[in-house]
Amino acid sequence: xxxxxxxxxxxxxxxxxxxxxxxxxxxxxFAVLPVGAVEWHGPHLPLxxxxxxxxxxxxxxxxxxxxxxxxxLFPAVPYAAxxxxxxxxxxxxxxxxxxxxxxxxxxxxxxxxxxxxRLLIVNGHDANMxxxxxxxxxxxxxxxxxxxxxxxxxxxxxAETAEIYGPLVSRGHGGAYETSGLLGFDPDAVRLDAxxxxxxxxxxxxxxxxxxxxxxxxxxxxxxxxxxxASEAAGRQIRELAGARLREVVTAWVAAELPAPPTADPxxxxxPPFSAPARPLPEESA
Length: 286
What we know:
- It contains 7 helices and 5 strands.
- The chain is of the alpha/beta class and about 290 residues long.
- Strands 1-3-2-4-5 form a 5-stranded parallel sheet, sandwiched between helices.
- α6 (about 175-185) crosses α7.
- It is globular and about 55 Å long.
- The protein starts with 8 loop residues before the first strand and ends in a 31-residue tail after the last helix.
């Protein structure tokens, strides 16, 4: 039978013989699916930046030789819905959001149906957060499943990146943080001398959280940020920190019980029937 690096680690799903799938699924603690994009990130980063990062961190969700859980690594989803700001730039391959949701729902359900009720999805492309979440919600109503979505970008906090890079903004699309992340996995894929710093548009002067989508921010060249702050040393630090946190999340997740299977009934069978609270009768007039 296909075996893991003792006692934990990952095995590639694409190499599992069909006749061994059931045994591998029974022995696995979880499956993992990277999701990325093919998208312009500026002249200094490859079109597969999001894909490389998703695959890189997915591979670190269970390190070979670790005492942690056993995982099965499925081939990455390479294409995604992309923002309007990057679609006109060369090399961006964007699919419509409604196609992305349907496609992802079929992929996720197929993995669960193959015998993997626990599925970790490691995301490298911000726009995937909404489409993957929608697909996960759909599958969870059809299959017994525990579906965990982790975006590598969020595994290191803004306060921590400020400690690494200083006061200048580092977390923009194609900026120092993302560039460093790629340097941590594939330094030969980065051309630091190909892009000059492009300070991003300032955030709104408010403390409340918000999501702002604009047709074409200014300044903008399909990317933004202080690329000159990126370095291999920062990339190694980010990879180590984010990878450790991902494994911490996975370890806690696989230790928890699986949810009950979905049901067409709105309430569990042992719950009392729902009834509206009694309304007091109006007082009679004297």
